[in-house]
């Protein structure tokens, strides 16, 4: 009898959870046998304003559109503006010196092959709210908090 | 030969004996329409995308690359076809280009780029021809649609506006200097400069092992 009751209550709880879509996560709410409406493709941020890095060695995000930029063995469209020799024309930030280093830390004459494919680390941003909650706190704010705590403690 | 020409000239000089003046003038007029009209129609047929992509060399390579770009698919549905960019619109320039294109017929007949591999091997050379042509005519084919007067930089991104103000409006650079590879994939650019830097730098080194003595000799020669 107890077992039957337990099973029944579990089933009830499970169906309630399903009804409220608590398993949803970032998946749309539509049931599996129905077709959900496609979300609008968000716009790429094209402000050309450099963004703050969340930590010093974060690869800076790309503040402009990179639609149809060719990035393969033949050509690297990003380097038309960001290469060492191009920045006078483009006034774009030059790729950092770390991009000239091989994995032994030897500085090469041109971009190291392991740093050639820009979009492995650098990405554009979309004009959307974050899909999942992010609890990241900037280290400066942590330091501020620590200082405040210390001062408060004394 | 000379006798034949003399006889021909003699016949041409003679007044027509059997045909009336009306027949000759009207006939000339009608034949003129047919030949001139036919010539122009044939010219226009060769100036369409359907004609260009009737050859697999164009259809399977460059045409496929054009399709995802803004010049083929975009929000307003206005698009450029092959001849819009690759054939001048003015009549004399167009005829000159068409005469050059007879070499492309030769290439087609003898299969210069009839496989993907051959095409990729030739791609840099082919691209360089187009870049040189557009640089020489101040990007005329771009400007057939994109006029600097009508360009509203306030509607552009900050970066684009600055670049156009600095280089396009001053005439320092022309469209193709910066906008290479916008409609087709780029060839191997490792020996090429996309945009010539303002400060001249030393040229690209040839691929392959370079001996120290050669480098030293090069540095000597580069010294002012």
TrEMBL record, chain A:
It is found in: Periplasm. GO terms for biological process: anaerobic respiration. One of its GO terms (cellular component) is periplasmic space. Residues 1-19 form the signal peptide. It comes from the Bacteria. Transmembrane segments: none annotated. Binds 2 heme C groups per subunit. Heme c 2 binds at residues 99, 118, 121-122. The keyword Ion transport does not apply. InterPro entries: Multihaem_cyt_sf (IPR036280), NapB (IPR005591). Keywords: Electron transport, Heme, Iron, Metal-binding, Periplasm, Signal, Transport. One of its GO terms (molecular function) is metal ion binding. Heme c 1 binds at residues 64, 78, 81-82. Belongs to the NapB family. Component of the periplasmic nitrate reductase NapAB complex composed of NapA and NapB. PANTHER family: PERIPLASMIC NITRATE REDUCTASE, ELECTRON TRANSFER SUBUNIT. Electron transfer subunit of the periplasmic nitrate reductase complex NapAB. Receives electrons from the membrane-anchored tetraheme c-type NapC protein and transfers these to NapA subunit, thus allowing electron flow between membrane and periplasm. Essential for periplasmic nitrate reduction with nitrate as the terminal electron acceptor. This is Periplasmic nitrate reductase, electron transfer subunit.
């Amino acid at each position: 009898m107890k077992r039957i009751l337990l099973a029944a209550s579990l089933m009830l709880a499970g169906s309630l959870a399903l009804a409220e879509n608590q398993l949803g996560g970032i998946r749309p709410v539509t049931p599996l046998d129905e077709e959900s409406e496609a979300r609008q493709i968000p716009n790429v941020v094209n402000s050309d304003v450099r963004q703050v890095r969340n930590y010093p060695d974060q690869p800076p995000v790309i503040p402009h559109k990179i639609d149809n930029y060719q990035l393969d063995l033949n050509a690297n469209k990003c380097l038309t503006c960001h290469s060492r020799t191009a920045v006078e024309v483009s006034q774009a930030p030059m790729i950092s010196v770390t991009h000239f280093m091989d994995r032994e830390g030897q500085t090469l004459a041109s971009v190291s092959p392991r740093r050639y494919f820009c979009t492995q680390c650098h990405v554009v941003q979309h004009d959307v709210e974050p899909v999942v909650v992010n609890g990241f706190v900037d280290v400066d704010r942590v330091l501020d908090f620590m200082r405040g705590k210390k001062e408060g403690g004394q | 030969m000379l006798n034949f020409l003399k006889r021909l000239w003699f016949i041409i000089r003679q007044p027509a004996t059997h045909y009336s003046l009306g027949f000759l003038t009207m006939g000339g007029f009608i034949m003129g329409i047919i030949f001139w009209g036919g010539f122009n129609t044939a010219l226009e047929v060769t100036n369409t995308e359907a004609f260009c992509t009737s050859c697999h060399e164009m259809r399977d390579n460059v045409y496929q690359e054009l399709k995802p770009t803004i010049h083929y698919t975009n929000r307003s549905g206005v698009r450029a076809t092959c001849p819009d960019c690759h054939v001048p619109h003015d009549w004399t320039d167009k005829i000159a280009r068409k005469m050059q294109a007879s070499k492309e017929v030769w290439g087609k007949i003898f299969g210069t780029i009839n496989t993907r591999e051959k095409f990729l091997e030739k791609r840099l050379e082919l691209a360089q021809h187009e870049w040189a042509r557009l640089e020489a005519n101040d990007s005329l084919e771009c400007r057939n649609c994109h006029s600097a007067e009508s360009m509203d930089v306030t509607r552009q991104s900050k970066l684009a506006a600055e670049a156009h103000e600095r280089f396009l409006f001053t005439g320092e650079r022309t469209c193709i200097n910066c906008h290479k590879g916008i409609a087709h994939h780029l060839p191997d650019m490792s020996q090429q400069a996309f945009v010539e830097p303002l400060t001249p730098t030393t040229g690209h080194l040839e691929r392959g092992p370079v001996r120290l003595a050669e480098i030293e000799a090069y540095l000597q020669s580069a010294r002012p």
